Fold these 4 entries.
Entry 1:
Amino acid sequence: MRLIKEKTTEYESFHKSLQYFTKQSAARGDLKLISFENHRVNSNLLEKYSFFVQNVSSFQKRIQNIESVIELNSIFQEFVKKIIFSKEVEIFLFNDSRRNLIPLNSAATQTHIAAVNKAYKDGILDWIYETKKATIIPDLNLLTANGSKLNQIIFPIFDRKVNYGLLSILTPITKVQDDSLENQSVQILLSMIIPMIINLRQKQSINKLYQELQVYQSKMKNDFDTYAIGELAQGILEEIGEPLQVILSYTNDIENEQTVESEVTDKIKQQVKKISDLAERLVKFSGLNKPQPQKSQPCEINKVLREFINVIKTTLDNLGLECELDLEENMPPVLSDPKDIKQMLTSIFSIIKSNSKKGGAIVIQTKYIKEKIVLSVFTTEQLVGLSNPEEYNSNITVKLINELMKKNEGVVEFNSLPLKGTIIHLIFPMKRKLNL
């Protein structure tokens, strides 16, 4: 008979039995036990701290002399991607109406923009602004059994305790802790960049306002000169009437004496009548130059258009431009001021005149569509500066038209293409709020 004995006891290896002791403080002199694993993690943390300090220092040096919001945002995106593995990094700021969040980066994807604004409309951002903490929002469209493949980290941005915007990061990361180095580093970068963005945007706004002020000052001076010339011209036109009458009287006397052929006197009468008609139209149209209090009244757009075309007909002929009217008859009148409509037509004609080429054509059309009067101007030429909203919104003449249309509670639309010419729509509503 043989006895088999199996040893089941295990002993810890010698190197694992070793422990590290350190003093908590010089005053107390107590020893604190630190495990080997914790000691190794502390070493890694030291390396991470060193990396992040260098990263922040490098970021500060890069942005010191930046004067462009776009360049500043680009550098910020680059450094955030070094801190957090991410697909997209975008800063969104509220627009003036605070109804939408607009990305600083014009190349931001529509998917990212839609995701941020959806979170805003769904009330998710309101909760994030209340907590004032970075929050992860999973992409439900990419949700699988193992979780979402792509998450959105939202960092709220404040300006003097007011919600100013947010930082949105698309990343596969599923967790972000408040005390993590990554979170703290991104918050530090945001605190450095946001004041600079606010400052640069304010400078841009001030420069833009200053430029507009100069333009308006110039226009006011020109308008004053035009008004003075208009007053002078009106007086001259009234004085022309008497000499024209004298010329007609002498022409009749000459014709009765039969000393000159009748063809000559007929030509004189025709030219005098032509000058008289032109003077009468100019005197009638010169009411635009009189600064009288303007009140909305029932106004027939077709009648105003015909008067306007009569005035500019000679100029159109000299420019070699054909003008056709396509006016819908029996339209209801709009509640407006005829002077406003004439001013808008004059402004549109000035734009057309500056870009006109001999042999071109203009079609002016009016339509009554769904309780709105639409006045459309079609040209065969592409008008310079009307192709891009950013260009024509800064044009002082376009601004004047926009302001007059706002006054009439209507809208103006511009569309200019190389092969299709230019279309300008003035849309007047039939129903308006009466300002008494």
Note: The first helix runs from residue 14 to 17.
Entry 2:
Amino acid sequence: MRLFAVVVLVLSIVATGCRSAKDTTGKVMLDGKEIVSVKLECADFCKRVGTPPFPPFTEKTFAKENGNALNVFRKAIVNAEKMNGVLNYVVIFYMYLLFDDGAQKKYVLNVADEDGMNALLVDTEESSQGYTISKDLTSELRSFIYGG
């Protein structure tokens, strides 16, 4: 029985470590890979509504030097909650995660420049399934995206 408890403890520590925010060297990790950058690209809806959030450009990249921003984007992905039903949405941003092995992951990220809203996250490989991001994490994302 004692051996079983030790095995369960070790497995839970290993599982938690795989999704941890930073490893011992300060790298921002997701599913065992280091995130080296997050690029946000203003989609058509973003370009049509008011002023794009990072003028005069239509995209913004957060690199390793922006470790806090990378960690907030990672937390938003890891903590997003699956939504029920079929989605009907416009795209505000495309979000590209670049990993240390050269792999890239693409998402739709809808973050409005408005307090009290939840952000929407959609993995483009499964575009009919949406995930909601908490108001607190949405607020943190908004501050990095819109600078407020």
Note: The chain has one domain: 2-146.
Entry 3:
Amino acid sequence: MLVRVLVAVLLLVAGIIFGTLGTMVHSATIGTLALPWGVVVALAALGCLLAGIRLLSGGRLNAACAGLGALVAIGVLSQRSFGGSVLITNSTLGWVWIGGAVVVSLLVVGWPGRRVID
């Protein structure tokens, strides 16, 4: 039981790290065309993290812990700081990052498991 709790806490921390890094790069664009590569890479990395955890652990709990950690980090970093700066602005990219992270987390955690037919 202690191992399961420690794994859940470590995956929560991993989710917080991915949510923080994704928040830092989500608004990055390419050149004058403003192609939003940052949000695409951040959502893909979050999806790969959660899908990998779900596939390796065989259950939903570990992926849910990592997804919860990412969503908590995104929620905390979307608040206005003491100096008045905001990391996730009220823009299309900000809403795509927040909504995309929720959708990716729900899809990976809620995806049906494999059924073995004997």
Note: Residues 13-18+54-78+88-112 form one domain.
Entry 4:
Amino acid sequence: MTSIATGLRIVRPDQNRPAAAIRLPAVLESIGNTPLLELKRIGGDLKPGVRLFAKAEHLNPGGSVKDRPALRMVLDGISSGQFSPDQTLIDATSGNTGIAYAMIGAAMGFPVELALPENASQERKDLLRSFGAELIVTDPLEGTDGAQRVVREIVAAKPNRYFYPDQYNNPGNWRAHFDGTGQEILDQTNGLVTHFVCALGTTGTFTGVTRRLKHEDQTITCIAVQPDSPIHAMEGVKHLDTAVRPGIFSPDLPDETVEIDSDASVAMARRLAREEGLLVGVSAGANVLAAYKVALQLESGTVVTILCDTGARYLSDSLSCRHDNRLPELKSASE
């Protein structure tokens, strides 16, 4: 396997531009700058002065919003000297960051090991293996919290073998969105965004985008989304009241937190496919449902949310239509 140092120009962090200092393979250069799409059919009954938009992060080359922080954490590790060519990247994941790591590892030439809960969708496991990652399957009842514990034990036993980005506690996670996603939203809305709505997982997307938007305009309302129960169908999303809180998250950052039902999120994900032509995952369904509920209450404003990942990763379970191809009866989003 080609060394990660091959073809790369490493610049030490005192130059303060680690991401810009490394020549990337073409596939990784395509991460970011995703389109902002107006949901005109989903938002067809909103008041005339209200617009609903979604950032199409599922169009990143790895299929999710996690391409951004995964690349940032890898580049930060290389430029700081923490990630050397003879090491293996290891981290805990629910799937999407892991897929991003595996894609980046394949493109840059470094091995990847990932711990993920056994109940992660089969498509995610297959994708990880297709990119050459080695999987460590963990207890599904412990979720990503259990996967993090397993990784820490492995790294403690062989610290020199691994580079452990620790996505839940790595500031590069949210900074990728501060520098990228948040700035893009400001640019694409011409600074007219009034509300940002986003689910909490590692919390990097919400944290980075919110900090960037608030840096520009403190009046922008930033609303966090979480499941209404610890047992839910939104892979990658945390019910923070009952989970280990990521170190990068500040509880005083959201202006408001809303809870969303899993069944309603699945229904909205199916609506996005059938009505907007957007095949996205259940967490994206939760985001759009929450954003739509916010938008319904407004007389005017621009509401932006995130389409976290592609729905192709859920066709064997939550979005499966193998047994019934009819669109499920949907509850009103105002209920």
Note: The first strand starts at residue 36 and ends at 38.
